[in-house]
Amino acid sequence: xxxxEIRLLxxxxxxxxxxxxxxxxxxxxxxxxxxxxxxGRHALVRLGAAIPARVWPDExxxxxxxxxxxxxxxxxxxxxxxxxxxSDPGHWIVTFPWVGEERARLLTEAALALxxxxxxxxxxxxxxxGQDRLLARWTERIAxxxxxxxTWIRDADRxxxxxxxxxxxxxxxxxxxxxxxxxxxxxxxxxxxxxxxLVDERMVDPGDWTGPGGAHxxxxxxxxxxxxxxxxxxxIVLRGMGYESNDASVxxxxxxxxxxxxxxxxxxxxxEVKSTVCRITRPDGWVILNGDDPLVSAVARRVRARVAFFxxxxxxxxxxxxxxxAAGGGRAYLVRSGWLTEVEGGRVTRIAEVSRVxxxxxxxxxxxxxxxxxxxxxARGLGATIEQVRDGLLDFRPSTDRSPGRLNLFRLGSRxxxxxxxxxxxxxxxxxxxxxxxxAGAAGRAAPITTIIGTAGDRPDDTLRGIGRIAAERSQRVxxxxxxxxxxxxxxxxxxxxxxxxxxxxxxxxxxxxxYASETAALRGELNGRGPDSPRVIVLMCxxxxxxxxxxLADLGAxxxxxxxxxxxxxxxxxxxxxxx
Length: 581
Fold this sequence. Notes:
Blueprint: E1 2-9, E2 20-26, H1 58-73, E3 82-85, E4 91-97, H2 101-116, H3 129-144, E5 162-166, H4 171-184, E6 189-192, E7 196-199, E8 202-206, H5 212-219, E9 226-230, H6 233-238, E10 246-251, H7 267-274, H8 276-279, E11 281-290, H9 294-297, E12 306-311, H10 317-327, E13 331-336, E14 339-344, E15 347-353, H11 366-381, H12 386-395, E16 408-412, E17 415-420, H13 425-439, E18 440-441, E19 444-445, E20 449-453, H14 461-474, E21 477-481, H15 492-505, E22 515-516, H16 519-528, E23 536-541, H17 546-555, E24 559-560, H18 567-570
Parallel strand pairs: 5-9, 5-10, 6-9, 10-11, 11-12, 12-13, 17-23, 20-21, 20-23, 21-22
Antiparallel strand pairs: 1-2, 2-4, 3-4, 6-7, 7-8, 13-14, 14-15, 16-17, 16-24, 18-19
Helix pairs in contact: 1-2, 2-3, 4-11, 4-12, 11-12, 13-14, 14-15, 16-17
C-alpha cells in the first residue's frame, strides 16, 4: 500500500459538501491510466460515489477501521467515513469530515502507521508490547494537537448574495458579463477572475483568484453588495470551495482541458468536479446549465435548486428536452427569430437582438451567443430584471479593459488581429469560427487566416495534438509560439512536438510551420512578413504576454475595433441584413 497524498479540503468538494480529509492510496503495481476521455457506461467512474464496504480491499478496511476508532477516541465523531474509487488503476480514496486541522492530519497519519504495522483496530485485541507502545505514542500526540477549524465561510457569516461560475470554456466571459449587467443596474460588485479581483469592474488585486482564497477576499469586503465568483477546477480539487453555499450558479460546458491532473482523466469526472458549484446552490436559488452539453445538463438531476437551461439548439433531442423543461414551467434561455429570449412556461420574453449584442460579433461568435444566454440566466437568478440584463448586454464590448484576452480585435492596415486565450480545442475552434466569418467577404473568402498556436504544457498529448490539427484544418498558415512560463513539467520540445504532430495529421508539412520564442515575437514576425499590405486575419492564442502583445499592437499603430460601430465593415455580409430597433 503506497500513500499518494493526505489532503485536507476546507470546503465543499467532489466527495462531500463539507470539509473532509482525503487520503489517497495505491495498491498493487504501478500502472498508468489509459482509456477513453468520454467512456461508456460500463467504464464510468463516479468520483463522489461511496463504494460498499463489502468490496473494500483488506488494507483499505483496516485503515478505515483505525480512522473510525481514533476519531471516536479524540472527539471527532465516528460517522461520515466513505471510500471511493479513482480511475487511476489501483487507487482508493478514503474521506471523512474534520473539525480540527492539526488533529485530523495527525489522526490520519496515526491510522496509516498502525494499519501498516498490522496493529488490530479491534479494542479487545491483544497487542504486543511494541504495538501497545506505538498506539500510546500516537494517542498522546493526537491528544496534544491543535484544532484549527476550516476556513470556509459558513452561511451564517455571509451577508451578501453569491453566484459561482464554472466550466471549461467561457467562464471568464460569463463572469465579466454578469458583473457588467449588475454594475450597470447600480449594484456594487466584487468579482474574482483568472486575471484578478475586481470591484465594480476595477482591478484591485491582479493574479489568478479563481480559488477559495479569492472567494474569501471578495465575500469579506464591506464595499460590495454582491459577489460574482469565477471558480476553477484547481481550487475545487486542491482545497475545496471557500464557502458553504451560493445563491446562483452557472456551468458553461465541459470539454477536454486540464485532464490527467490530480487523478481527473475523463470528461465525466471533470464535469463531476465542476458541478460542485451547482450542488451547493441553495434550494431557493437558481442553477443555470448548458442544455446542449449532455454532461452539463445531466447535473440537473443532482442539485437542490431550481434549474434553468440555456441552449443554441433548434432541433434534435437536446432542443426537445429544453423545450419540455420550459413548457413544464421551468426556465430556459434560447435564441428565437434572432433574439435572446427568456422562456418560462408559456411566456416568451425578448431580451435583446443577437446582432446588437457586441460580444456576439453580429452572431458570428456563437460561443459568445451562448455566453450571453448563460449570463442572462445568471443575472436573472440574482434578481436582475429583463431590462437590466438587456442594458448590460448591449453595453458590454469585448475590449482589452472589459474582457482582456477574450476575442479582442485590432486593425492594422488591411490586416485584422484576433487576440484570444483559446486555451484548448474548443477554444481555438470557437475563435476560428469568428475568423472565418470575418475573412469571408460578400463574394467569398477575401483574406487568408494565419493561426498562431501554443498553450500550457499541462494539457494532455491528445489536447495538444487536437489544437494543432484544428488550426491546420481551418487556417491557410499555422505558426507555433512557445509558452515558456507555462511548461508545467514538460520541455519546450515536447509541447512543440505534440502541436506539430496534430498539424501533420492534416497533411501539412511541419517544415512549413515556423516556431517563435514568444507570443510577441510570433505576432511581430507575422505582421512584418508575408506582404504587410495584403489582407490577412491573424489569430493569436495569447497566454503569457497579453500586456506585451497589446503594447506591440499599439506601437505598430494598430487600432482596437469597436464591434458595435464597425460591425458591417468587419463582417461585410451583414450589410445586407436590415437592422431592427
